[in-house]
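Figure S7 source data.
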Amino acid sequence: MSNSQSSNVQSIHDKAPERNPGMDFDPGVFAGLRVNRSAVERRAATLGKRRTVKKDYQAAWLLKAVSCIDLTTLAGDDTPGKVRRLCQKARRPVRQDILDGLGVGDLGLTVGAVCVYHNLIGVAVEALQGTNIPVAAVSTGFPAGQIPLELKLAQVRDAVKAGASEIDIVISRSRVLTGDWAGLYYEVKAFREACGDAHMKSILATGELATLTHVAHASWVCMMAGSDFIKTSTGKEAVNATLPFSLVMVRAIRDYYALTGCRVGYKPAGGISKAKEALEYLFLMKEELGREWLSPTLFRFGASSLLGDIERQLEHHLTGSYSAQHRHPVS
Ligand SMILES: O=C[C@H](O)COP(=O)(O)O
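C-alpha cells for the predicted glyceraldehyde-3-phosphate complex:
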C-alpha cells in the first residue's frame, strides 16, 4: 500500500469534529418533500453491484472503514470486563502483523469511538485513558425511548457527567407517526441543550417509521434541532440499517448542507457485519456527499461485529485468498 493511502487513514482521524448549531423550526422546508420508494430502491441496488478494484485500494478502504467504526456493545450480558476488552480492541483494532504485511507499519489506527450502555460509561472512559477515542453512550431510554422526557434529559446530563463525549439519543417514534413535527423538534432541541459540549447523534429507528417520506422528514427535523449526526437504528428494531434508508438520510444531509452550509454526520447502525457492506456504505457516502464525508468526524458505522470481518478480509488480502465477492468499486 502506498504512503499516501496509509497516511490518508490516519490524518482523517485527527480532524476537528463538525458541530451543527441547528436552525429555527420551519416545517415549510420539508413538508412538500415526498420520497419515491422505487427510485430509491433502484439506486440502492446499483451500490451493491460487483466490480473490481485494485487490491491495494481495497485494503486502504477497509482501514478507513475501521477508523469510522463506533465499536459497540449493547447487550444484556455486558460486563465491565467485556467493555475493557472491547476498549483494548478499540486501541489496536487491526493486528500489527496484518498492518506490517500491508506495509503500513504503525499507523496509530483506532476505531471512531466505543459505544456502550449508560452504566458502563465510566469503565470505558477509564479503559480508554491516554487515547483520543471518544466514549459514546446510548441514552434517552434507548432503545424504545418509552420513558418520560424528564428522565430522558436527566439520563443525557448524567451520561455527559460520567464522561461520555458522544450521546446517541433515540427519537420518539410516536411523534413521527402522528405527524407531531414541532413536538419532535423541541424534544430533540432539549436533548441538544442537555448534551452541552458532547456531540449528539439522533437515532431515527428508521425501521419503525412506516415510510421513507417519514424518514426524510424526521432527518430534517433532527438536523434543524441541532443533531451533529443522524443515525438509522438502535440495532434492536426488526429492520435496521439499509441502503434505501441511508440514501434518503444522506440526501437530507446533502440538502441541509446546501441550505445552511453545515455538515451533519451520518451513522448507519444495526446489522452491518460484513466488510463488503462497509464498502457499499463508503461508496454511498462518496457518491452522494463527496469525499469530505469519508471521515470519522462525519461518518460512523454503529457495529458490534463488523471489525472482525474486516480484519479477516485484510488477512485474506495478504494471503491472496481475498474473495472476488468482496471486490467493490470504492476508489
Ligand atoms: O448502534 C449500534 C448497533 O446497536 C449495533 O448493532 P449490531 O450489533 O447489529 O452491529
